[in-house]
Specification:
Layout: E1 9-10, E2 38-43, H1 51-67, E3 71-76, H2 82-90, E4 98-101, H3 105-110, H4 118-122, H5 132-136, E5 147-154, E6 156-160, H6 161-166, H7 178-192, H8 205-215, E7 222-225, E8 228-231, H9 236-251, H10 263-271, E9 277-280, H11 284-291, E10 300-304, E11 312-321, H12 328-343, H13 349-360, E12 370-371, H14 377-387, H15 399-405, E13 409-411, H16 418-434, H17 440-458
Parallel strand pairs: 2-3, 11-13
Antiparallel strand pairs: 1-12, 4-11, 5-11, 6-9, 6-10, 7-8
Helix pairs in contact: 8-9, 8-16, 10-11, 13-14, 16-17
Length: 460
């Protein structure tokens, strides 16, 4: 997803408050689900631990229903699960709007498990102003669009500014190369007794983060051969990333004691001041503060993804899509909801400012966490200016990420069966982190063979 990174959006949060204007061009519809109301079940409801976002979601639903009396929104906290999606879809127990990682649309579209929403989406007056690259991965070969993105992101290096200072490092000059990360991690571990750097390893996050390491070293995870994709990670960039991890873990002893962790585990430890650095996005600020109680938010720092032979970072997003089993009426209502709740605040400065102002009134909220833009640079400048008075995060601590990411190429996640690829690569990462004598060449050779079987099956 080659999104432009100039300028980078200063977002008002996952849900940025109430919009006072409805989306144009669409009319409410009913199907008798609940009297004269159409009941629309949607994923994307924040968890109770994110009270500010949950409160705003509830107000957002109330405002939407007030403007659209023919539609009732029922939010769920359900998350994307590739293991249960097909079963729920077949049993028609899936929500009318699903939220999935950007790795999934190509497969869902190819299997006809989701439906195009091009017609109702084009009814929005500003449809033509989307960055076309944003919708490309959500479209089929005929140009039909199957979803809308939420808060596109680019990976970087999150770091604890307090631990940097305690270790004698300059928090205003974070590492820019993996060699510098290694040196900083060793220094943090030696001076503070904390884990200098932690790499996620379970729940598909090990393969995901290995992909980041590969991209930053000039490599790729899949390449096209003869019109089909095959594994391409059994090469020097990925070997280099794993060798770097192996050295940091076993020679430098700079990665702490717990090596079977996912993102929540890492962010929780980071919020408690136990981790110096990890790969993540600016969005982990919200996790650290809202879910895991980061007290001194000024300790949070983030820079662009360090490089060693590459000039790239992994970009992605969550996307909202409509299952193929959903009726046309509900699909139209779904688009109306998605535009109202998620897209207009990223386009309309007035709506963005209103939602940012409301969210900022809650002391628990995080307003101003940067994301990547969905529209033109000029439009994003207007959004940034409108929301600036309500930003309540230490924006200067995001500056290394803002400046550095703008200079990197944004590479999408592997185009075929990414989550299954990550599952296989999790075992490689886990072996390297838990077995001193792990044979990287043998691990990658086996993973390559296993992934190629998966890719072949996916592309029949």
């Amino acid at each position: 997803m080659a999104l432009s990174t100039r300028p980078i959006a200063v977002a008002a949060g996952l849900l940025a408050g109430l919009a006072l204007t409805a989306c144009s061009g669409l009319t409410p519809s009913t199907n008798g689900d609940s009297g004269d109301q159409l009941v629309l079940r949607v994923q994307g409801k924040p968890s109770p631990t994110d009270k500010a976002a949950l409160d705003q979601f509830d107000r957002l639903v109330a405002e939407f229903e007030k403007q659209n009396p023919g539609i009732k929104i029922e939010g769920t906290e359900n998350k994307w699960d590739p293991l249960t999606f097909a079963t729920k879809l077949a049993g028609k127990s899936i929500e009318d709007v699903i939220q999935a990682p950007l790795t999934e649309p190509p497969g869902l579209i190819a299997r006809k498990q989701v439906q195009p929403i091009t017609g109702p989406l084009k009814s929005w007056n500003h449809y033509q102003e989307f960055n076309p690259q944003v919708l490309k991965v959500l479209s089929d070969s005929a140009g039909d669009v199957y979803g809308v993105p939420l808060a596109p992101f680019a990976q970087g290096l999150v770091y604890n500014r307090k631990l940097f200072t305690q270790a004698g490092l300059n928090p205003d000059k974070p590492p820019t190369t993996w060699d510098e990360v290694r040196a900083a991690a060793k220094q943090i571990a030696e001076k503070t007794g904390k884990a200098g750097f932690v790499h996620e390893s379970k729940g598909n996050t090990g393969g995901w983060q290995l992909t980041m390491g590969t991209y930053s070293r000039g490599g790729s995870m899949e390449s096209e051969q003869g019109g089909k994709y095959v594994a391409s990670f059994n090469s020097e960039p990925t070997k280099s990333a794993l060798t770097w991890l192996q050295t940091l873990r076993w020679s430098d002893n700079a990665m702490g004691q717990n090596h079977l962790v996912d993102q929540d585990d890492v962010v929780k430890q980071f919020a408690a001041g136990q981790i110096g650095m990890f790969m993540g996005t600016p969005g982990t600020y919200r996790l650290a503060k809202m879910k895991f109680g980061l007290k001194n938010t000024a300790d949070y720092g983030i820079t662009s993804l360090p490089q060693s032979g590459g000039s790239a970072t992994l970009a992605g997003a969550d996307v909202f899509m409509v299952p193929a089993s959903v009726s046309k009426e509900k699909a139209e209502a779904a688009v109306k909801w998605l535009l109202f709740a998620y897209i207009e605040p990223q386009f309309d400065p007035q709506v963005a400012a209103e939602r940012a102002k409301e969210l900022a009134a809650n002391p628990e909220a995080a307003v101003g966490v940067p994301t990547l833009p969905l529209f033109s640079a000029a439009q994003q400048e207007k959004i940034n200016a409108a929301t600036k008075p309500y930003v309540n995060v230490e924006l200067e601590n995001f500056k290394p990420w803002l400046d550095g990411t703008a200079k990197l190429q944004l590479q999408p996640e592997p185009p075929v069966a990414a989550q299954k690829v990550y599952t296989i690569l999790d075992t490689v990462v886990q072996s390297v982190l838990t077995k001193r004598d792990a044979d990287i060449a043998a691990l990658l050779a086996k993973a390559e063979a296993d992934v190629n079987k998966v890719l072949a099956a996916e592309q029949k």
